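Try this one yourself first.
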């Protein structure tokens, strides 16, 4: 099984992070089942350079071939929809693990426009691989939503539209899953700035994806926190 992570700053991570990708790699490795992590990128975002040029993961033993992804700081559905087809063609993932949307709603598109980009993304991925599977994480409102009511409403509206898109587009040949928001996720304790996951947040994000796949597809096993 070949997995590709697709996401924004929460997924690429910054220099010095483990990243939730690392936590998912740990989980997949612990299942003992064969897998590969694929994608065109492998770096973290370097805040000093303001560019995705760092390879300084918190665990330097994180294998190079497991660091692959399609994630970008400041990138959302708007940016990934046009490139997902080429990425799927080139790297041949079986499953896309997607965490996108917050940056779209915060800076680029409203909820309806963002939902339209979700549908374009799914179409592009399927044109490249008609049998691809996808797990989509709803937007987790960040600290901005606590003081910006219109933004909070857009996040909620988008999550409703995302659920509708998953229900509309799910097919037996190319199944879609809507992951649940990680249990007990607290932006004040599971992030380092009200948005980006810290170690506990990384674990909870990986667990949300792993548990969703296990329940729906009997893929792997339930998430266990690595020792």
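Now uncover the answer:
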């Amino acid at each position: 099984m070949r997995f590709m992570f697709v996401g924004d700053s929460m997924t690429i991570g910054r220099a010095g992070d483990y990243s939730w990708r690392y936590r998912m790699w740990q989980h997949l490795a612990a299942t003992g089942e064969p897998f590969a992590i694929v994608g065109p990128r492998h770096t973290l975002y370097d805040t000093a350079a303001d560019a995705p040029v760092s390879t300084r993961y918190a665990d330097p033993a994180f294998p190079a071939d497991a660091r692959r992804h399609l994630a970008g700081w400041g990138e959302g559905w708007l940016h990934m929809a046009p490139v997902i087809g080429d990425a799927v063609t080139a790297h041949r993932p079986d499953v896309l693990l997607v965490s996108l949307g917050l940056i779209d709603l915060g800076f680029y598109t409203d909820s309806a426009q963002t939902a339209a980009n979700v549908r374009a993304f799914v179409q592009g991925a399927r044109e490249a691989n008609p049998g691809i599977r996808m797990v989509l994480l709803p937007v987790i409102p960040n600290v901005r939503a606590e003081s910006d009511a219109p933004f909070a409403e857009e996040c909620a509206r988008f999550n409703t539209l995302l659920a509708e898109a998953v229900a509309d587009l799910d097919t037996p040949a190319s199944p879609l899953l809507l992951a649940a928001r990680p249990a007990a996720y607290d932006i004040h304790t599971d992030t380092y700035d009200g948005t980006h996951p810290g170690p506990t947040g990384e674990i909870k994000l990986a667990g949300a994806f792993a548990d969703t796949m296990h329940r729906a597809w009997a893929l792997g096993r339930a998430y266990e926190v690595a020792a």
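Discussion: Residues 28 and 173 are 24 Å apart (CA to CA). The longest strand covers residues 2-7.
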